[in-house]
Amino acid sequence: MLPEGATCAVHASAPAKRTCTRCGAFACLSCPENPFYPGMCPACSARMAQPASLRSYLAITFSGLSATIYCLPFGIVGAILGHLEVQAIDRGEAPLSGRGYANAARWIGVVTGGLTIAIALIGGVLALISAVD
Ligand SMILES: [Zn+2]
Ligand SMILES: [Zn+2]
After folding, report:
1. Which of 25, 106, 108, 127 could join 9 in a cystine, given CB atoms 3.0 to 4.6 angstroms apart?
2. Ligand 1 (ion): which residues have CB within 5 A?
3. Structural domain boundaries in the chain
4. How far apart are the CA of 115 and the centre of ligand 1, in A?
């Protein structure tokens, strides 16, 4: 429910008619509602409509490559880029649409990076064992 006397976040003189489903900002009847993002305020739907940032694409590319060609540095780069991008999105500095890529890049990067380190360690231990023989 809207509090008594609440006004629109964009149009200070207009009474609020709804709240944004994402940020909770008040919106009035004259605030445009994007049909692709129903229930969101103009600011949020504009941020959703922005294309994902270059960094989110780079992050998913590096992590994707690390997962397909098992290259450790790519996974680390993807994890770092993905992490930075998620932080930027949370601060409102990067388009929301990149969040899926950035999150996926972060986790794929962590998993492939971790796996590659584990494989390298096991390989090193096996090499040591066979060297002892
Ligand atoms: Zn909003
Ligand atoms: Zn308004």
Report:
1. 25
2. 20, 22-23, 25, 41, 44
3. 1-49, 54-132
4. 39
DSSP-assigned beta bridge partners for residue 7:
15
The rounded Å distance from CA 21 to ligand 1 centre is 7
Listed in sequence order, the residues at least 6 apart from 35 whose beta carbon sits closer than 8 Å to its beta carbon are none
Predicted TM-score (pTM) of this structure: 0.61
Q: Please give the C-alpha separations between residue 89 and each of 45, 57, 109, 118, 130, in angstroms, as whole numbers.
A: 14, 14, 18, 31, 49
Query: 32 CA to middle of ligand 2, Å?
Result: 8
Report CA(62)–ligand 1 centroid distance (Å): 32
Which residue intervals of the chain are DSSP H helices? 42-49, 54-69, 72-90, 99-132
Q: How far apart are CA 123 and CA 106, in angstroms?
A: 25
pLDDT of 95 strictly over 80: yes
